[in-house]
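ok posting inputs for the FE2/S2 (inorganic) cluster job
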Amino acid sequence: MYKIVKKEALNTTVKLLEIEAPLIAKKAQPGQFIILRTDEEGERIPLTIADYDREKGTVTIIFQEVGKTTKVLGALKVGDKILDFVGPLGRASHLDGYKNAVVIGGGLGSAIAYPQAKKLHEMGTKVTTIAGFRNKELIILEKEMSAVSNQLFVTTDDGSNGNKGFVTDELKKLIDQDASIDLVIAIGPLIMMKFVSQLTKSHGIKTLVSMNPVMIDGTGMCGGCRVTVAGETKFACVDGPDFDGHEIDFDEAMRRQMMYKEQEAESMEQHNC
Ligand code: FES
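and the output
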């Protein structure tokens, strides 16, 4: 059993949990994820590792309450325990050898982009972070991202934080001003990652995206998490979740993402979420 040692609400639907998991904390790297099951009856859900503390032996996860399991998870309190917490899974992000990176987080994707920015910053890479949200109430981790970035731009779709626009608008400005950008990391909704990848492709800038498809076993056995990369089938759980954004079939990934909407809505209804 894995004990919750800290809980924080980052906005009305996004929660942070710090969980005692010393063996995972010892090995975790940015880009990797865990699969958890809250109790015997629970489904297995993958969540990206948002942070880890090797000394304290804890792993931080950040999630949005969008379905039955994340609602159950969000209702747990400090001191409660999670039945299964397995990881670290997936491949760590390859961040070596870059000098000038732009790290982009869209909404909850900022929680996944944050450890990447932090690691790049620790490695001495220049880091510009762009974080986009629908409105200012949804902004998360601004202080944390600022601490690991040479510059930070926070945009909102409705302009309620005084900086109206999409992350791609900010990225375009940066690319126009600075020809030395050698890496872009984009993590967020598929549509955002698609448009970022299109923009960087036209400028020949290496781009990593983090895919978050449906996952079941997390070990490459079930095929649930397949994505098409450079015309080949890959499994996000063992081959990713990071992939070259210029090689992903985003349209197929978006179609697959919609496949279980009906069942998810049914499950929410059954459990009065
Ligand atoms: Fe089953 Fe990846 S989750 S193959």
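notes: The chain has two domains: 2-89, 100-258. Residues 2-89 form a domain with the Elongation Factor Tu (Ef-tu); domain 3 fold (CATH 2.40.30.10).
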